[in-house]
Amino acid sequence: METEREMYTQIAGVCHCCHYTGAAGGRVRTGAHRNDYTPRRLAMKTLFIIAIYIELFVTNCVIGMPASGGSQFEGDAVKYLAEFGYISESQVEKGAQSLMAVDLSEAIKKLQRMGGIPPTGVLDMRTQELMHKPRCGVKDPVEGTRKKRYVLAPSKWDHKDLTYRIENYTPDLPWQEVRRVLADAFKVWSDVTDLTFTEVMNTEADIMIKFASRYHKDGYPFDGKGLILAHAFFPGKDKGGDTHFDEDEKWTINSKEEGVDLFMVAAHEFGHALGLSHSNEPKALMYPWYQGYIPDFRLPYDDTLGIQVIYGKGDATLPPRDRTTSRPDTGGEQNTLAPPRKAPIDPCKGNFNAIAVIRSEVFVFIEKYFWRSPDPKTILSSEPTVIHNFWYNLPEDVETIDAAFEHPTNRRIYFFYGNRYWIYDGNNLSNGHPRNGKPITDFGIPKDIQKIDAVFVWGFNQRIYLVSNDMYWKFKVADEYIEPDYPRDMGIWKNVPIPIDTAFNFHGDTYFFKGENMYKFYDMKMKVALNWPKPVTSFLGCGDSIRLRNLGSSPQRIADRSSNPNSASAHPALATSLLLLSLLCIVKQMLNTC
């Protein structure tokens, strides 16, 4: 404020200098000097004063507004935001009045983004409902930038043969059923990794499990029946991995009646015990809020990716075991599975059935297997996965994937085989989609077409194209129907082999595949680029080949600045402040040169 007072003093001296000695000091000006006091200089000085008043208004009236001025920031809301990591508990300790409204509004926006509701920054009805939903007691990951929806904790287990011990049981359920359900919850994670979980009886274990009420000596007391259902500690020594369930809840198994499903909560908490934080994907198991009993539960795609980033994919991705199957009551070790036989195919020889970019990863389908990796050159660093073991409910007669693509808006995955197609949410069949698939005639494809060879996004216009033999169609995403005036002849795509095996878009460039070769397409001339085709070994990183991203000349497309939450355009107050500061600097420079 002292600097501001000095500025006002100087301004006062300047503005009154034509008539008398101002507050800044100075002699009475003569008439000759008043002739130099032009309208331009007066306008500049007036503008300077207005800019300072605006700056002070923004700083003192908006940014400096205390939180206690509005009831929406008081009481339980502030406590909730602190408890789950959206504001520091030290601030709450000092009292809500010490918090600025802009800070609490930003905290509410973070909560709203995590909950998947519009980030208004206002404690509206939907936000209040979210705050009253039962949930996990682990704090939400609100700091940092996530590349994917799943979030990794700062720690992991340094060994994969983990032990667990059940210290006590809830009286709500038979103890044998509790043991079975907890074992099934662990199996959710062992099915997609090579982690093993063995129950022990009388010794310390990596993961200690117990049911407790209120204060239970871990520093995180439960709140009674209602909000917090359970919590777990991330991997580490002492309490690391320990998982606690609130005994004040009514625990149930496979029931839609009143109560909390033990399997769903346990599977979620064990995700924390293995090193996963919360996800803002509403369908993910690691979503913070309780989703209720889900029959025939399968681990969603988001959670599968997260746990495999930490521990790898393992030697096999196995068909999930029915969770209703009875389990022996003995506490012996679980059976370990022999590693699978290697796939009797060589991806470096090409002959791909399909290639697609799904969730920012490249998927290569050959016969009944698929490989995946964000970088095609490293795609062969792990064993393949059987298609049916990852995408559940595909009929047994689906021998491979002919073509695939990810919907650009709703992110659903479309698979084609023969004259049928399937729609998946992650790795689960979309609700209402028949297991036997739907006919491709739903899209307007003629009845005599028995197979879609490829589906790709053309980098030139970002439109989706379907190819079958020597014909292709442009697909209208909004209507899920082909455009008029199609099909057209594939001969338009000069030098592309007919029929193609598959095609896909990578970093804005379109590639066609046939046998052992790949063809980069030159959009502007509508033909295969110079010096192509090249062997698929350059795509998969077989031998000493170069990376695919170096094969193309087009760089990564630059994201819209408005999508960057740290950009000035995403923060109107910041943009306004920067504009005002720039204005002040310009005016000052002009005044100095006048």
From TrEMBL:
Matching Pfam families: Hemopexin (PF00045), Peptidase_M10 (PF00413), PG_binding_1 (PF01471)
Gene designation per UniProt: LOC111134457
Annotated Zn(2+) 1 binding sites: 216, 218, 231, 244
Binding-site list for Ca(2+) 1: 172, 249
GO cellular component, one term: extracellular matrix
Hemopexin repeats mapped onto the chain: 349-394, 398-447, 449-496, 497-543
Cofactor note text: Binds 2 Zn(2+) ions per subunit.
Residues that coordinate or bind Ca(2+) 3: 223-224, 246, 249
UniProt name for this protein: Matrix metalloproteinase-2-like
Residues binding Ca(2+) 5: 355, 404
GO biological process per UniProt: collagen catabolic process; extracellular matrix organization; proteolysis
Residues covered by region (Disordered): 316-343
Catalytic machinery residues: 269
Similarity remark: Belongs to the peptidase M10A family.
Requisite cofactors: Zn(2+); Ca(2+)
UniProt domain Peptidase metallopeptidase: residue ranges: 153-313
